[in-house]
């Protein structure tokens, strides 16, 4: 832990709730970027936006065990706190980093009463039982602790963004700020999970993105969008030997199944090298 403190000069690290409350007390214009580590350019774009809109930026790094529906996924999730802190310090745009312990977040041991509405059990919620209940629970707890004015979240996890925004903005004063998906040179959406992909996986992911763009272009020409997407889903599975959870067109305002391209997004979740990837365009 002393090593962590030594590499932080301008950026202040907060190791528990007591130091957080004391440090943040003077500020009322906080921009909050919640992360589970594995910091990449997508996270940095959130930090940049927070810097533009808020006086103070705080980043949290907390791998929340309660949002993993698969124990193997939790165990293999990328962890390199020293690397993450070096990246954050280098930006010179982060004022505070919050590294809570499990007991700091879950000091209130009351069991979460969060339950998704039936209409929200779609896309990832349909395939990852308990995942979003865990996400919403930890986001509520973090919001109560940090008390930010604005929370910055990426559009890559669009369903997560939608659910968090719908729940938190009704209950708290914090405003959820959507941020565009950041992609690499091959248009693959940046994700901490990408650390588990090999060169061949990246080539496949790049091709799948190209296919998604073509599918989206051709949707407007199709009378039966559902049949068209089912056909394209089978094509992707056969051509790239991948498992796909879903390939769906949904309205971006309410996530209802859509029959037209206007105000809609194409959503996909698939597996490469046993790594679950999501995207939407």
Written description of the protein model:
The protein has 281 residues and is α/β, with parallel strands linked by helices. The chain has 2 domains: 178 residues, HUPs (Rossmann fold, 3-Layer(aba) Sandwich), CATH 3.40.50; 89 residues, Pantoate-beta-alanine ligase, C-terminal domain (Pantoate--beta-alanine Ligase, Chain: A,domain 2), CATH 3.30.1300.10. It is 43% helix and 19% strand. It is built from 11 helices and 9 strands. The strands form 2 sheets. A 6-stranded parallel β-sheet has the order 1-4-3-2-5-6, with helices on both faces. It has a 3-stranded antiparallel β-sheet with strand order 7-8-9. Helix 10 packs antiparallel against helix 11. The radius of gyration is 19 Å and the shape is globular. The termini are far apart.
Write a brief structural summary:
By secondary structure, the chain is of the alpha/beta class. Helix 3 (41-53) links the parallel strand 2 (30-35) and strand 3 (56-61).
- Determine the oligomeric state from the structure: single chain
Strand content: 15-25%
**Proper CATH architecture of the largest domain:** 3-Layer(aba) Sandwich
Strand order of the largest sheet: 1-4-3-2-5-6
CATH topology-level name of the largest domain: Rossmann fold
Structural class, from secondary structure content? alpha/beta
| Count of the domains | 2
Instruction: Please trace the helix and strand order, writing H or E for each element.
Output: HEHEHEHHEHHHEHEHHEEE
Poorly predicted ranges: 1-9
Cα(first) to Cα(last) distance is: 41 Å
Total strand segments? 9
Shape: globular
CATH domain class of the largest domain: Alpha Beta
Radius of gyration, whole Å: 19 Å
Instruction: Average the pLDDT over all residues and give the rounded result.
Output: 94
Assign a percent range to the helix content. 40-55%
Task: Give the full name of the CATH homologous superfamily of the largest domain.
Answer: HUPs
